[in-house]
Structures are given as C-alpha cells and as structure tokens.
UniProtKB/TrEMBL annotation:
Short name of any one Pfam family annotated for the protein: Glyco_transf_15
Protein name: Alpha-1,2-mannosyltransferase
GO biological processes: cell wall mannoprotein biosynthetic process; protein N-linked glycosylation; protein O-linked glycosylation
Organism in which the protein naturally occurs: Pichia kluyveri (Yeast)
Organism lineage: Eukaryota, Fungi, Dikarya, Ascomycota, Saccharomycotina
Compositional bias of kind Low complexity: 57-75
Positions annotated as active site in the UniProt record: E299
InterPro entries (UniProt xref): Glyco_trans_15, Nucleotide-diphossugar_trans
Region ranges (Disordered): 50-75
Length: 412
C-alpha cells in the first residue's frame, strides 16, 4: 500500500513537471510571425498575457504625473498612465514601410521603441513593402516586437506610375532635378514611397483593424522613457495628429503643390475646417505656402483622419495633378497641409517629452526636469525645437503654448 502510494506521488510529480515544461515552452514562442501577405497572423495570441502583465508592471509608472511646462502636454498624461487592464488597450499599431535591405537599420529603431515604450504595452507592428518580405526580415524583426507582427505586400497599382502620368515628362523632371542636385530628385522609388505614404498606407488591409498608428522609420532614435500609454494619451485628449520635429520644405520639390491645393479648396470649400491651422502654413493668409511641415518620419495619428472624405478627395486631386511624379511632392508637406486645413487645430499635438532623432535633426527636451524624470540620453544643445529655421516657434505662438523653462538658451 505504502509502495503504491509512493508510486502515485512520483507519477503526480512527473506529470506536474511535464505540464510546467509545456507551459514554459508555449510562453517562449509568443513573438513568432506568420508568412501571410494581407491577413493578420497570430501564431500565438499573446494579447491576453500581455494585458495581464501590464496590470502589474504599469502600476509602478503611476508616480509620473508630469511636470512639463508645456501646458498642452500636461493635459492628461495622468489618465493615460493608469494601469492597463485587459480590454483597455487602444486599437493601435506601429507601421513601418521598409525594404528587405533596411532590416538591420530597422532593428535599431524597434529596439529603441520597445525599450522606451512598447515592452510595457505590447502594441502590434505592421511592416509594409513593395516586394515580399524576406524570411530574414521577418525573423529578425519579429523577435524584437513585443506585440504581434504583420507583414504586408503593397498592391502594384499603389507603387507604380498611374495610367494618367506621362512617363516621359516625369523622366524629364528627374533629369532636371538630378542636374540641380535636388535631394532624391532623380529617384523613381522615392516618388513611389512619397505617393504611397501620402495616399495608401492607411488603406492597406492590415491597417483596417486599427484606429491609431505610430510611424517608425529605420535608423531613428527615441531618447526618453515613454512611461504612459501614448496611444491612450492621444485618444483621451482627442488628438488626431502629433509630431516631434517641424521644418520648411525645399520649395524646389513642390513648385505647384500650393496652387493645386488652392484649386482644390475652391472646388471643395466645405472641407476647410473652421478652426484650421492655415496661419501655420502660410504667412500671408493663404496666398503662399511657407513650406512648414511636420516631419512625417515620426507621426502618431488617428487613421480615421486619412480615411475621411476630405483627405481622400484631396489625395485624389493631388494624384491626378501628377505632382508626385512631375515634381517631387513629399508625403510630409502633403500630410501637413491636409492636417493644417481639414483638421481642428486643437487636435494637433507636439511631443516635447519623447526625444527623437532622424538624421540630421534632434528633438531633445530642453527642460532639465523632463530629461531627469524620463531618463533621456540626449544633449539639449542639439535640440532644434526653438531654432529660428524650424517651425516650432510659430507653432507655440499660434497655439498660445507656454515654452519650457530656459528655452531661450537653446534658441538662436
Ligand atoms: N519598401 C520600400 N520602402 C522604402 C523604399 N524607399 C524608401 N522606403 C521606406 O520609406 C521610408 C522613407 O524613406 P527614407 O529613405 O527614409 O526617406 P527620407 O526619410 O526622406 O530620407 P533619409 O534621410 O534617407 O532617411 C523609410 O521607412 C524607408 O525604409 C522602397 O523603395 N521600398
Ligand atoms: Mg528616413
């Protein structure tokens, strides 16, 4: 009897050990990826476990009730900082357009975004490409992302010359811009990229399930901890577009963009928002464009804005005018003009607390307290925010925002 009891105990012990090993193994596979093009994959649904994880790990972040002097920012970080509970997450994703050859550079961007923010939140990441993603790209990126990864192929018609474009005329422009040394002026793929980011990234089937996005490019840096749910922050404050760096566009790349925009507004006056940000785009009441744009290699925004009738009509109008190919219209001025004209300016937000770098410009919080609280690793002397060449002084002025303490030291 005693012996059969001992056997029973041994059996129970090994069974328990087996169950435990199986559990540990299943946890270890949570960041794998799927090979499908257009449908979200879910090799392992880690959402639940992440949500549970957040329930505990975010409680520690509650001490940050933000002492930024930017009145805009201090609005409701506290709210976004609340404990994340299951089902409380925003429908949001990171989105990256990349070539297979960008894989090593995008790893650095992902690592930074994960370390500074996403490892505590587990948001998904959508990767888009005009070619099939390589196994290497999928393997390397999926191992770093704490949320699910999705890999999508861009439809051919969104990455080629539309039938109404005169390709000889487009080639002449490229040749002229090559001689004039306009940056990316002779590139076809750069133009497809700008057109895609202007008109199509938000329509990709993989993006349909999401309400908010954060665009991330290869080789960027995040300098500070983001210890609150930044997507929830956007949602709670009703922000629809946010940025970190703004600057004037090279006029040589957009000679007729503003004229085309004015024609559009004449035809569709109903789309001009009554509380628009025209004064940031134009110094003479809309006659000319001063080139100010939000640098679109960083964007956190609400997808519904791009899906709106106003924006879709605007993009279509620009696309038919042909300036993506006959000139070199960038997605940054296109997005910015649309935001400035069709969005309530209250819904635009400047992040002064993240710290961001994309070659060659830095956004580094000039407020020392912010840098200390958020463990920033940047030199405020490199910050461009308050330099005259850029468009942020104007932004602060038009929005009536209080500049951070000591900002004068970092202006010109
Ligand atoms: N799939 C794909 N992605 C591209 C292509 N060209 C650019 N991209 C991506 O589009 C985004 C913008 O391209 P960049 O080359 O970074 O353009 P940029 O930021 O204006 O210029 P840089 O100063 O060189 O960074 C990046 O995420 C690139 O990875 C392309 O031909 N194919
Ligand atoms: Mg770039």
């Amino acid at each position: 009897m005693a012996r059969s009891n001992a056997r029973l105990v041994r059996f129970a012990f090994f069974a328990l050990l087996l169950i435990l090993s199986a559990y540990i193994l299943s946890k270890g596979s949570s960041s794998s990826y799927a090979v499908s093009n257009n449908s979200p994959h879910s090799v392992a649904d880690i959402k639940e476990s992440l949500n549970q994880k957040h329930g505990t790990s975010n409680a520690a972040a509650n001490s940050n009730s933000n002492s930024n002097s930017n009145t805009d920012n201090s609005k409701s970080i506290a709210n976004a900082n609340k404990k994340i509970i299951a089902g409380d997450k925003v429908k949001a994703t990171f989105v990256t357009l990349a070539r297979n050859s960008d894989v090593w550079e995008i790893l650095g961007s992902i690592r930074q975004v994960e370390d500074r923010f996403n490892r505590n939140f587990g948001y998904d990441w959508v990767f888009l490409n005009d070619e099939e993603f390589s196994e290497e790209f999928k393997r390397e990126t999926s191992r770093l992302v704490s949320g699910k990864t999705h890999y999508g192929l861009i439809p051919h018609d969104q990455w080629s010359f539309p039938e109404w474009i005169d390709t000889n005329k487009a080639a002449e422009t490229r040749e002229r811009m090559r001689q004039e040394k306009v940056i990316y002026g002779d590139s076809i793929s750069y133009r497809h990229m700008c057109r895609f980011e202007s008109g199509f990234f938000f329509r990709h089937p993989l993006m349909e399930q999401f309400d908010y996005y954060w665009r991330v490019e290869p080789g960027v840096k995040i300098f500070c901890d983001i210890d609150y749910d930044i997507f929830k922050f956007m949602q709670d404050n009703d922000y629809e577009y946010s940025y970190t760096i703004s600057l004037p566009e090279y006029q040589a790349t957009i000679p007729t963009l503003w004229e085309t925009t004015k024609h559009f507004l004449k035809e569709y006056p109903q789309y001009l928002h009554p509380n628009n940000f025209m004064d940031w785009l134009s110094d003479d009441g809309g006659v000319t464009y001063n080139g100010c744009h939000f640098w679109s290699n960083f964007e956190i925004g609400k997808l519904d804005f791009w899906r709106s009738d106003a924006y879709l009509a605007y993009f279509d109008y620009l696309d038919k005018a042909g300036g993506f190919f006959y000139e070199r219209w960038g997605d940054a001025p296109v997005h910015s003009i649309a935001v400035g004209l069709f969005m309530d300016k209250q819904k635009i937000h400047f992040f002064d607390d993240l710290g961001y770098y994309h070659v060659p410009f830095n956004n580094c919080p000039v407020n020392e307290q912010t840098r200390l609280e958020k463990n920033c690793v940047c030199n405020p002397n490199d910050d461009i925010t308050f330099k005259n060449y850029f468009c942020n002084n104007k932004y602060y002025k038009l929005k009536g925002l209080k500049k951070p303490e000591g900002w004068e030291k970092y202006g010109d």
